[in-house]
Design brief:
alpha/beta
């Protein structure tokens, strides 16, 4: 009788464990937008990073990411950190809509931390870009286009930190956020005349690095910060030369160079995102070029994709 009771108890315990809620991964990536500036059916660049199952970090917010965020049915309640790789429209155009969605989602006072590149005052043919703090002020500041949001449905405050993205910026990664084992590091990128920033998120032995839009001049910094990343999200727009217009190589990195960097950095997985129609139409050759140097898993991003590093 004792043996039978013990056997039944073991079965009940096993059944209870099998029905238990799965433990959330330390980090999870949700792709809100996998496309670029063209109206090609993909949302512009944007991602949400979940920490212990909770959506916490927004990385870029291109056009269309507002809709994708709703489709993903992710809670906005704890999204409090925004990382902007640069200020091109296809990476920031949906920011006001997402901020308002966060405000009306409830939950009391809201405090955003926004990080992004310092500004650039162009001359001649070079464009002028505001700093991220100026950009946010133009949108949400006292005289900003959407100043009404600061007390629309809940008190909203925004702390903006400009990351040095100049040619004189440090060549070593800088920690910009550290909290309960969650660490966010950054280093200057390079995207033509647009100030750009590379980000790395580390938590519980997992890591995700975001290249942002990056050309050859930014690869040394990316190689440095991406070392041994669990997942490298690399923006892929151009084919190997001369397969794309020459001017695009002053802004983006071709597949062969992506493969070399991924191998040199010893990243565990590679996700190609910010995809152009050119890349979509030549996936086999793009992957083959990358695999000349990098043998780890390679995936092409899709809107709504979820990945664990």
């Amino acid at each position: 009788m004792f043996k039978l009771s013990r056997y039944v108890a073991i079965l009940i315990f096993a059944a209870a464990n099998s029905m238990a809620t799965p433990v959330a991964p330390p980090l999870e990536l949700v792709v809100l937008g996998s496309g670029g500036p063209g109206a090609t059916g993909r949302a512009g660049a944007g991602y949400v990073v979940l920490v212990d199952g909770e959506p916490r970090i927004l990385v870029d917010a291109g056009p269309g990411t507002f809709v994708r965020l709703g489709e993903a049915k992710l809670s906005l309640a704890k999204i409090d950190t925004v990382l902007l790789t640069h200020l091109h429209i296809d990476h920031t155009g949906e920011l006001p809509g997402i901020f308002k969605a966060r405000v009306v989602s409830g939950g009391g006072p809201i405090h955003f931390q926004v990080f992004g590149p310092s500004g650039h005052h162009g001359e001649g043919e070079d464009a002028t870009f505001p700093s991220t703090s100026r950009f946010i002020d133009l949108l949400f500041g006292p005289a900003g286009a959407y100043s009404y949001l600061h007390d629309f449905a809940a008190p909203m405050t925004i702390k903006t930190t400009d990351i040095d993205a100049s040619t004189n910026a440090s060549k070593s990664p800088t920690v910009i956020h550290s909290e309960h084992g969650l660490q966010i590091s950054t280093i200057a990128g390079h995207h033509g005349d647009a100030p750009a920033v590379i980000y790395r998120i580390d938590y519980r032995h997992q890591s995700i690095t975001f290249s942002g839009d990056i050309d050859a001049k930014g690869l040394d910094n990316l190689r440095h910060i991406a070392q041994h990343s669990s997942l490298l999200v690399f923006n892929s727009v151009v084919l190997d030369p001369p397969g794309s217009p020459r001017v695009l190589y002053t802004l983006h990195t071709p597949p062969k160079a992506i493969g070399v960097l991924a191998a040199d950095s010893q990243v565990k997985r590679l996700l190609l995102s910010h995809l152009s129609p050119t890349i979509d139409q030549a996936r086999a050759s793009v992957e083959a070029s990358i695999r000349e140097h990098y043998q780890g898993p390679v995936a092409f991003a899709e809107d709504g994709m979820r990945l664990q590093p």
